[in-house]
Each structure stands twice: as structure tokens, then as C-alpha cells.
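Encode chain A's predicted structure.
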Amino acid sequence: MDIYLKKAILHIIDRETGSPVFSQQELDLTKDFVRDFLQKKIKKISSAQTKTGQLTEESLFSQNLKQCQENFVEESERLVQRWFDIYAESEEAPSADVFVVLYEVDTVMYLALLKVNYRDAYTHYVEADEAGIDNRLILNRAILGSKSQKADEALAVNLTDLTYELIEKRYEFSGKKEWYFSGKVIESVPAPSLEDNVKVIKKVAKQLGKKFEAEEFDIMADLKEAVYDTIEEKGRLDHEMIAEKVFKENITAKLAFQEEVKEQGFIPEAPPVKEVQEISEKKFGKQKFRLSNGIELIVPVDVYRNPDLIEFVNNPDGTISVMIKNVDEVLNRL
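Encoded structure for chain A:
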């Protein structure tokens, strides 16, 4: 994904002062480190935890977004002020820097709001007086995470059709944890994230596996493979295809699975996040096993599927043997 940055600005949210410090100047996008930082943060918005949805044209938030293309500095301040007015009501929401970024992908304009929380870090501080140089160790409480880390919260909106990707956190408001960003800031109910949907199907598959007396490790291995396959083939989770792959000839279990996942909150037509195949490869492209004797195995899906390379054998005494075959070389890595 090639990201072409158009405009960007940084606003400071210091909870100690009680009000934002708004910049009146845009960030200098001619500096390589600024561009690199913002581009990597934007790319990290797409993940298994990302929720998706679409804003309404009539909302005040949508109108502010549209106007950002014409009056970027002023409208970015209005957007962040609207967000902060709600965020500040939380008893635990931390201080942060907020970046508002206007950018283009494949000729489509997007606007992103990236919130990056502060982290404590130690550094040196040099003072000089009549006694000479005094090098001190100080604690800086306003350090940003590295460029490779995703933003703590983020919203990226397609300015053409108002579809969005969202990373949000629950914070405490009047003693109750809330998804404040979707519920109060953009006032839109997003579809569950890929991770949320996977949690639902994993929970239901485990329950049905016990009910139909199937080995849990078989069910979980088949489930992970099914999740990987359905995303690779369709670009999204397909609960019917997953049911076929996990429960195979057990028609009763397949039907029960399809009904139960919907009742538990699974959304079959949830729009996929960008780069979903890449996410699938990283997160679901390997089977991970922890054996009772302490051995841990990480097996790529294509290897797991090949009985000439690995085989799980059920022994008469109820134990399981894992056979690893046709290995040309064993590397010992410290």
C-alpha cells in the first residue's frame, strides 16, 4: 500500500493541564523521519483488531472530515476538540499526542486521526554552572513509542464513501468501561474486528467439540486452518465454509455451529480490513501446539496439511504421538 501524505499536524493532549495544546502550523513533510513515522503508523491501522464501518453523511463529525481538505489546520482542531471533550470525561484516559493526517491511497483521499500515548523513558540532561558540567539522569514522561508500533487508538476514513477502519480502547467513564470512540465520538456502530469474530467461532467450536466428543486439539487445528483458508479464498470469514472444514460429515454439528456463532455476535458480512490476506498469513498461517511433555511446535499450514511431513497418531493407550518426517537438516538457534 503506497501512502502519499498531503498534510499532517500534531496536537498535544496533556491531561495535567486540562486542555489540548493545538498547533497552528502543519508538520514539515519534507523531513524523512516525519514521513516515515506517519506512514508506518497509518499502515499499522489495518490489523486483526481493526473494526470497520461507515459514517453517515449527516453527522457533524463527517462534515468536519470533509472540510479538512479545504481548511486543514482549523478543522483538525475542531475534530480533536470534539474527541477531547468526550475523552477528558474518563478518569483513566492518559496523556497523548494526536496526529491528524490527510493522505492519498490509489487516488482516494483519506483522513486519519492517530492517538499515540506517552511512555516513560530515561535520558540524560546536561547542566553547566560555576562548578562545571553536571550530567544528570532524568525521567521523561512524554516519550512516544517507536515508528514500528501501532497507534494506541486510530481512525482512518475514506473521504469518498466515509467507510472507516478503527482501533479503539475501552476507558472508564463514571466507573464503567466504555467503547467511547465509536459510541460517542463518531457515533457509529462498527462491525466486529477479525479478532472478535475469531474469538466467537473459537468459543463455539470448543463447546460443540466437547458436546460431540471430539479431541480439542483436532478441533482447534482444523479451525485455525479453516480460518486461514476462508480468508485466503474469500477475503473475509465465512462461517459456513468454516463449519464444513471443521465438522466435516457431522451435519448436526455444522448446523449448530452456524446458528450459535450468529447468536454469539459473529457478523458474517463484516467488511474486511485492508491487507487482510497479509494479516491472515501472519496470524493464522501457522499452527502452534503445546504438548503435555513441555514440547512446543510451530508448524506452517502447508506443512501441517502434508502427512509426509508431520503426522499425529492416536495410540491405543489414549496418548498421542507426533511424527515429524523427512527432515533434511536440524538447526539449533540460540
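The mean pLDDT is 88.
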